[in-house]
Amino acid sequence: MEKALSELGQMDELAVMESPIHDLNAAAKLLSTIVYIITVMSFDKYDLSGLLPMVLVPVLMYQIAGIPVHTCFYKLRIVLPLVMAVGLFNPFFDRAIMLKIGTVGISGGVISMITLMLKGVLCLMASFLLVATTPFDSICAALRKMHLPRTLVTLLLLTYRYVGVMTQELAIMTDAYHLRAPGQKGIHVSAWGSFLGQLLLRSMDRAQELYSSMLLRGYHQHFHYAPGKPFRAKDAAFLILSCLCFILLRHINVAELLGSLIVR
Amino acid sequence: MIEFDNVSFEYEKGKPVISGMSFRIEDGEAVGLIGANGAGKSTIMKLLLGLVYCEGHVLIDGTEVSKDSLHHIRQKLGFVLQNSDNQMFMPTVYEDMMFAPLNYMVSREEAEKRVDAVLARLGLEDMKYKYNHKISGGEKRMAAIATILAMEPEAILMDEPTSALDPYNRRLVINTIRELEQTKIITSHDLDMIYDTCERVILISDGKIVADGRAEDILRNKELLEANHMELPLSFCAR
Ligand SMILES: Nc1ncnc2c1ncn2[C@@H]1O[C@H](COP(=O)(O)OP(=O)(O)OP(=O)(O)O)[C@@H](O)[C@H]1O
Ligand SMILES: [Mg+2]
To answer: What is the pTM of this model?
Structure first.
């Protein structure tokens, strides 16, 4: 558990690798990611066949970025079940048969469940790719350029940093616990209350001290984000092409198109 | 110049941590603050930095530490925290070192030059792009000192700079401190280190000054030290 969390806190290292995707301007990537997520979300809840080709986008991007797709699922393994759980109840509410494969009828609920799960996973993959290929500072700088409120962006950056602090404290505490409770798997329910309380207090203490360390070094309500990559012609090209591609995928049902080609 | 004028302070009502303390530190002095656990050394640092407020006056170069003067005063003081983990919050050593100069409106190129100069001076060039969560305790301490030097402060405050360091890194930190020409205020239980780095020592007990004088005199005074939960520095015990 703490390993899974601390890996989340160590994304900075992936973000400074080199690849055509890493080399793109943060704002271009951010916008493209937002458009992708909106496109994915806009698919009808029964439109599984339309959504499927959208899988190609992240898969291709991960390839170009040189980040194996499984690192995303591995690093996000604690969040993934939550995303997957979203559509879990649909099969119970929506029992109308939509599709028959042989004699087995598939209800609308099952299809909408799969569609929802896929949407969740795709959004997760896209956001992960953004964070994994862009230093978090640059993302924040891009958000500022888009005139998001300063306080909000600073909050975002600090939250990102504090996740690291929390996970370190969590690691120290679980180690201390296991050293005195040998052979026990996980942490006993009776200790959860005090464990969580302590974790919160300790993280707050450390956050407080980190914050004073920032103040002592002249922090004055705004971060000086590293300038990041400039917005060049190729960033514009990437942004326009990728958005066009998403819109095409949204409006042309590739699966159906291929199907009709083969039938003919 | 740093001045405490009849300063009293308590975290909780009725439990004074500093009571009626006065002292004066001239520019360029190196002063060791010593005393038992809980004597109030870290609290003195916090008062100087305006992290907590007190009764009485704390003056830095004649300016009283207050909400309005904080930005100005903190630019003059560099503070090396007792726990370096809480000092370094950017992903890499380099970004951490850039943080203060950028906040004080130094241009990026200028700041970069400063960072490189400090790293070269401490012999830490290869640490520049290391990740803060991947360096050892000793390296982190050196990096923390480097981030403070990149601020170019007029005075440097250090809380336990040699705690948890191996002898090699301890010696490295001591030699680094000795070469700094700024005003220095150092707290430690490592009296040998204090003897190596400070000419003057202020001994504190229960929030009061018990002795203030030449390091040579105070650190050789066995009775005084033992009465305050300390022992003679090892370098005096030998033979
Ligand atoms: N945040 C706080 N709230 C309440 N009391 C505190 C707080 N911080 C310190 N104290 C108390 O103030 C007193 C002085 O603490 P301080 O940290 O200044 O001691 P110190 O001389 O630095 O000790 P050490 O050598 O252990 O670092 C102690 O009795 C401590 O219990
Ligand atoms: Mg202390």
So the answer is: 0.76
